[in-house]
Structure prediction request, 262 residues.
Amino acid sequence: MNSNILMPYEKIFSCGIINFSGKCHNSTIKNHYLCIIITKLSNNILNMKHLDNIFAEKLLKISAIKLQPNNPFTWASGWNSPIYTDNRKTLSYPDVRSFIKVELCRLIEENFGDAEVIAGVATGAIAQGALVADTLGLPYIYIRSSPKDHGLENLIEGNLKPGQKVVIVEDLVSTGGSSLKAAQAVRNAGGEVIGMVAIFTYEFPVSVKAFKDAGVKLLTISNYSAMIAAAKEIGYIAESDLATLEQWRKDPANWVPRKIEG
Prediction:
């Protein structure tokens, strides 16, 4: 494989070779190195990292994701959690920010190529959604978590025409409640939600079921499983932490932190 083909992504990510399908039809994306044509690599090349693992490693290194199995966080919901994610931090790192933009665009091009509008979910995905829409050359709207308490009291900001096909951009999917609320807002406004893309998902069983029941296809750049694998590989967590982290993912609402003996 010609190493020159990989240079834009190596500059962005500075680690390894990334396997892409090479699908792309949008000329704007070509100008943003989304259409770097990389043939699918042979199955016998076993030493290559998957993109979701590589990206998860980046999130850990910039502290967009923090893991503290022995000193858990408390979420606003009251849940105890060994993980805290703040993907807004990625906006402060140009290489990571650009990579997210490129990958979200690629997911949309490959899976939702007939998208007519991009919608960002407030507040975490407003910036990323705008970057994606600009790269794809598509109209952009964003969805509030609740209507404004003044003026037109809009839930959706921007122009959405009835029947337009919409792809929603999220930064983080946990239980899926707020994400699917945003999807319903688009539907209530007359838009057709053809899919959702996100930076990261915790892969909670409840969210998997919720998206299936709502008929919304979700695709993400990375996920909890890939992040745990990356954290273990770089020594961020110990082998003894793995069982705890998996127990939390299966039932986060009822997870009780283990006691550390003094």
